[in-house]
Structures
1.
Amino acid sequence: MLFSWLPACFLVGAVLAREITFPPVAGIQHPIVGYGVDQDTASLDISQLMSGIATYANLPYVHCLANDGEEVEKYDIAVMGAPFDTGVTARPGARFGPNGIRQGSRRMAPAFSWSVYTGKNVFLEGFKVVDCGDAPLTFLDNTVALKQLDKAHKVVSARTANNTEYSTPRIITLGGDHTTTLSALRGTYDHWGAVSVIHFDSHLDTWDPDVLGGGLSHYAGVNHGTFLHIAHEEGLIKNTSIHAGIRAPVSNPKYDLKHDKACGFNIITARELDKTGTQGIIDKLKERVAGSKVYISVDIDVLDPSYAPATGTAEVGGWTTRELLTILDGLEGIELIGADVVEVAPIYDNPGETTVLAAAEVAHSLIGLMVEKPVKSHG
């Protein structure tokens, strides 16, 4: 009995004597489940938890907006934040959306993203996915901020992709209010021309700037409810576009709906899902955009506020997170050339981070669609 304590003592000594080591890249966030520095050789290490600077899904950070002449690591799909919320007509706060979505993605990592539904890992399918950080946008002048975002999209998409066969990188934008989609569509037009837009939202967002903006000024007329009208005016989108999840009221039932159709859109209301199920929605969306390049924009308020309370203009009666993800994943095979998830305002989220978790998974699905169907630009 006298020496029964010795084994335990030696064990404690061995633990205390272990060499302290740091991960290969210090100061970079590591996911809750582990980390991997290289997407191709990512390995799990559960000792690294909740530390470092956040990137989306623990992807490598690349300074995609480096000055001319600076060497930039090549990539195929770029995640870029657009911290802008001064185009809202309701609650502000979406300028913090990009970092909120990254926070919601902390449990995700290239080494731990094998789908139980498909058996695939979208981060390890041969296309390099990176986080470019946020576009630097002023919050003092909307006109200047959108010019900055226009340029950011042009710079990021103009890099030569890592994949030699598909030379133009594609961008997933983390918003930011919905005005930011206008800059993204201007950027995609340079490489793919006019596109069909699949617009997941509770609102139409095709309002005439003279109606939603009051005709006060050009500045006031460019906002998160008019950007699709402006995109149509600029010839960025085709007349084969479609809304999904619509349920918010309109100001003038005859004019607003007629004007929306003139902007090139059909409408799938939120309650239509109750009649057709998710497969019915998928079929309608695919039929509408068949044969064209596609841009998907997901306003997080397409979800019911019980699933996504952290948004600027919440509307009750929306879809569940599972329903939205099922619909997105069902769109496999479309030629997706760009996408975004917007209107995430973390200040209105609950302690469980319901909204940012949902937005992070939406971005994951959008990346999956891009990986599943590579698309060549027109030059």
2.
Amino acid sequence: MPTAPTDLCRYPIVQAPMAGGGSGPELAAAVCGAGGLGFLAAGYKTADGMYQEIKQLRSLTDRPFGVNLFMPQPSQADAAAVEVYREQLAGEAAWYETELGDTDGPSDDNYEAKLAILREDPVPVVSFTFGCPSRAVLDAFAEVGTYTIVTVTTATEAQAAQWSGADAVCVQGVEAGGHQATHRDDPYLDGTGAGMGLMALLGQVREAVQIPVIAAGGLMRGAQIAAVLAAGASMAQLGTAFLATPESGANPIHKQALTNPLFTHTELTRAFSGRPARGLVNRFLREHGPYAPAAYPAIHYLTSPVRKAAAKAGDAQGLNLWAGQGHRLAREMPAGHLVEVLVAELDAARVVLGLPAAGGAV
């Protein structure tokens, strides 16, 4: 079993697990093949769907890879607030000629079934989002040789992960695209208190724990990777940077929107899922974001048919266009080549800093 995340791959670059189709076997295999650490996103998938993707990835690469799991979420949805939001979205459903979804879907994301598969047929790395597993779960993975990573958004969450037996933490700054991985979704922190920038958070976590730290949030260039490594991170995790690659499973409309001048900035919103997530500001986010209740995953299920209909219609204004703050720096190139470019940029930055080049034995 590796003692550090850098033992898993040649370069200190992790491809973020992007649930909803972005991070599939083709993308993970391309990143692994180029010397980075590729990830499958098991969120929103059935246990068998996750297993089939693992089998496919194994057929594409013999390099170490990771699988990301969503932690089960406590039920905190206010049924009345969800119904009010349903009424507000009735016009969206009519416009896209679809029905709103059933909000009674599972809140555990098939967590136990996925754990059973991953313990029975271990993968090199398993990471967790939206909470921290119990010590028993992390110990069970250690017994089968699986390296475990817990995504955190505060120093307190990082300490809890270390205490529970995680091998490393992934520190997610507020700049990151997609869902904020907070262990407790607190609507009172929405707005100005929604999160901390990566560099400030990285410094706090580095002083709070002794286990390795992976940095994530808005990273798009090799020089930024050099910066977080210099600040004490072992590796850098990039999501939006890989979203525009041909191997990404993201909708082509989503890929094009990343650099479309029509979409000038991102915001955190509950509009699409009921949990804070960073996306490009479009019509749906502007009109419904201020009114969306803290009700994940109920709102995710409610808006799912609308989002699918918008995608089918080619309408970016009705999609959840998850993206980090650095989205305008996205580059449309093969994922393996992107890793090579990032490494070259990282090495150039290290020369300026008087540090050795990236890399090492796989």
